[in-house]
Write a structure and sequence with these properties.
CATH class of the largest domain: Alpha Beta
Organism: Parabacteroides distasonis
Signal peptide: 1-23
Pfam family, one: Peptidase_C11
Helix content: 25-40%
Number of domains: 2
Largest sheet: 10 strands, mixed
CATH topology of the largest domain: Rossmann fold
InterPro entries: Peptidase_C11 (IPR005077)
Structural class: alpha/beta
Keywords: Signal
Number of helices: 15
């Protein structure tokens, strides 16, 4: 028999105070509830990173545990590694929990080694399998929480350079290794929830394809609290589909945090994407990029509409589109807090058509728009636009070493993005 230590839950008013909006503010389900006798389990895989986030992440876990009170069809599990950057139990150690019947219960039989590495994909695999043992035959949603970073090719040691999901001190877990940990567990996931910043690049989407049905995250900075997991669990318990529950969670985030302040800038982006089958997306991107590369030296003889310039090569128009995407307004949240040297890929391709006047791209871009409507379940941007959907890496690709490394990532192999980038911007000489 395992020994567990029961944590006293925080007052209910704290939970109620964090709920961002009423049900009337949220999109209603158009589908029938999913019948499921065994219910759902929400898995938290979290690294505090610093004393402040030790507390904020544990608060999210505690609130989610509270939501299970009186509900046998929802439960949580959690593996939490504190930052070790302050005194006391809240900031030191690695602990494992279950959450059921409103209580957060520590597994006192869990005895991690002193060198326990939460960024090791094997630890994630073990946690997912353990969670499935505690709550078998449920539908599982994985939350990975910690400090996220953008897709930066040169930071990783292995060949696949996809950093960013969460940090453990100065070390970081790459999106590639996150995928490895999930895949090796062999437990189907309904959803992945990125409780860390900058988890919206197109490269990550390629790494995580097929690991879950859905991804909830943001390509920008997110608030410490991020998502209302208590309400998410209640939605699932009340019979809403996973898709509906995630959409409602995204809307709650936007309703509450649209005035989210970070260094005097305000703004929020949150989105839900399909992850199951993305072949149509990779196909249309590859075909669009191939057409752009094959028409670099052709001249614009089809459009007099600015910003296209009659008689200029399409290559020059594509280059101008790149330059326009790099404009930086320090007072603009979306300029300041996007990933370094990243641009929104769908928006760039649209601008490439407008700046070059290459109307051959029009049917490809319209097909891309249709595919994105299927991939994007929900995209919310606090300025009302849709020009920050999927970031793509750019600036680092001008270094030959990083370029060679980038070409090992799945997204580039599927689409040939770096070849177009090199055609337009070249590479720096050593």
């Amino acid at each position: 028999m395992k020994r567990f230590f029961v944590f006293f839950t925080v007052p209910l008013m704290l939970l109620l105070g964090m709920v961002s909006c009423s049900n009337e503010d949220l999109p209603d389900s158009q589908s029938q509830p999913e019948p499921d006798e065994n219910g759902y389990c929400l898995l938290f895989y979290a690294s505090g990173g610093d004393p402040e986030h030790d507390l904020s992440e544990m608060n999210s876990i505690t609130q989610a545990a509270q939501a299970t009170a009186g509900r046998q069809d929802i439960a949580i599990t959690a593996l939490f590694k504190a930052s070790g950057k302050s005194e006391g139990e809240a900031h030191n150690g690695v602990r494992r929990y279950i959450g059921e019947d409103g209580q957060l219960i520590q597994d006192t039989d869990f005895a991690p080694s002193d060198d326990f590495s939460i960024i090791d994909p094997a630890r994630l695999t073990d946690f997912i399998r353990w969670s499935a043992q505690q709550y078998p035959d449920r539908k599982y949603l994985l939350v990975f929480a910690g400090h996220g970073l953008e897709f930066i090719p040169y930071l990783d040691i292995p060949a696949v350079k996809t950093r960013s999901t969460l940090s453990d001190g100065d070390d970081m877990m790459s999106s590639y290794h996150l995928a490895q940990g999930i895949r090796d567990a062999g437990i189907p996931l309904e959803a992945m929830i990125a409780h860390s910043c900058l988890q919206g690049s197109i490269e990550m989407l390629a790494e995580w394809e097929g690991l879950a049905d859905y991804l909830l995250g943001s390509p920008f900075s997110i608030p410490d609290f991020a998502y209302d997991y208590a309400s998410l669990l209640e939605d699932l318990s009340e019979g809403r589909t996973v898709e509906d529950a995630l959409i409602r969670t995204a809307h709650r985030t936007m309703n509450l945090w649209q005035e989210f302040h970070d260094n005097q800038s305000t703004g929020t982006v949150v989105e839900v994407s399909h992850l199951k089958e993305l072949t149509p997306l990779w196909d249309v991107l590859q075909e669009t990029i191939t057409l752009m590369r094959s028409t670099l030296q052709e001249k614009n003889t089809h459009s007099t509409d600015l910003p296209a310039v009659w008689g200029e090569t399409y290559k020059k128009g594509y280059q101008k589109a790149f330059k326009a995407m790099y404009q930086h307004n320090e007072d603009n949240f979306f300029d300041n807090f996007r990933a370094d040297y990243a641009i929104d890929l769908p928006d760039f391709l649209r601008n490439a058509c407008l700046y070059s006047g290459n109307v051959q791209l029009v049917p490809y871009l319209n097909r891309l728009h249709e595919v994105l409507e299927d991939v994007l379940v929900c995209h919310l941007q606090s300025d009302g636009l849709h020009n920050h959907i999927y970031n793509v890496c750019t600036g680092y690709l001008m270094n030959p070493k990083e370029l060679a490394t980038y070409r090992t990532c799945r997204f580039d192999q599927l689409t040939g993005w770096s070849k177009l980038h090199e055609d337009l911007l070249g590479t720096k000489q050593e």
